[in-house]
Amino acid sequence: MLKIDVISVQPKMFAGFLTESIVARAVAKGACEVNIVDLRDFGEGRWRKVDDKPYGGGPGMLMKCGPWFAAVESRVGTAGHGPGVRVVMTSPAGRKFTQRDAESLAAAEHVIFMCGHYEGFDARIETLATDLFSVGDFVMTGGELAAAAMVDATVRLLPGVLGGGPAATASESFGRDGLLEAPQYTKPPEFRGMKVPEVLLSGDHAKIESWRKSEARRLTELRRPDLAEVL
């Protein structure tokens, strides 16, 4: 079972995510355990302070070292994390999170997500992390949504979480072939003049598979030429 800890100054943001999403199903099935940790429980002083003004001046407030080291060490111990533990820091400066990364996290024993906030982290906090990930080339007010997206992408890959077994994720976008997924259709066979491709109604599985591969390539070249260039 994969153990997941999410450390945040906005723990209430995860309430609906943990009770309504695929993550709730994974927890119910015993595929994973998810704990939301309030960073302010490790805050300093009477007001449980977790941030302060940056040295050298500048806008905003930076997250302090003390609360973060205490919070992470409360999950892994002061000796540090072992080989089966991943500590993920959300950061616009991090490497862009991909399906390969989700697969890698799903194979871990314990994943800790550190949600940034305010102006960012004191740079020394990065020493706690095994991975710095970004979900795109944009900046958000906090790392909670990014962490939620990564948790979802990871948990859905755990055995038994999705119906249909391994086949449910075998031919998705960004799968092992690196292509986007081919178009899919369901009933009715025609809607407002738009028809389902005849090959999908033919029952010829070899032709259907060939069509799907061709369409996956076409869509990838059309919508994500950056992916097609490396294939």
Q: Output the strand order for the largest sheet.
A: 2-1-6-5-8
Number of strands: 10
Rounded to the nearest angstrom, the radius of gyration is 21 Å
For the sheet with most strands, the description reads: 5 strands, parallel
> Which regions contain 5 or more consecutive residues with pLDDT less than 50?
none
From the spread of the alpha carbons, the general shape counts as: elongated
Bin the strand percentage: 15-25%
Span between termini:
34 Å
Provide the succession of SSEs: EHHEEEHEHEEEHHEEHHH
Class derived from helix and strand content: alpha/beta
- Mean pLDDT, rounded to whole units? 92
Helix content: 25-40%
Output the number of helix runs. Answer: 9
In short:
By secondary structure, the protein is α/β, with parallel strands linked by helices. Helices cover 33% and strands 19% of the residues. The protein has nine helices and ten strands.
Summary keywords:
231 residues; alpha/beta; five-stranded parallel beta sheet; 9 helices
Task: Explain the overall architecture.
The chain has a five-stranded parallel β-sheet, with helices on both faces. A three-stranded mixed β-sheet has the order 3-4-7. The protein has 231 residues and is an alpha/beta fold. The chain starts with a strand and ends with a helix. The longest helix is centred in the C-terminal third of the chain and has 19 residues, at 205-223. The relative contact order is 0.14. It contains nine helices and ten strands. The protein has helices spanning 15-20, 22-29, 65-76, 99-106, 144-155, 167-170, 198-201, 205-223, 225-228; strands at 2-8, 32-38, 51-52, 62-63, 85-96, 110-114, 120-121, 131-134, 190-191, 194-195. It is elongated. The chain is 33% helix and 19% strand. The mean pLDDT is 92. Helix 4 (99-106) crosses helix 5.
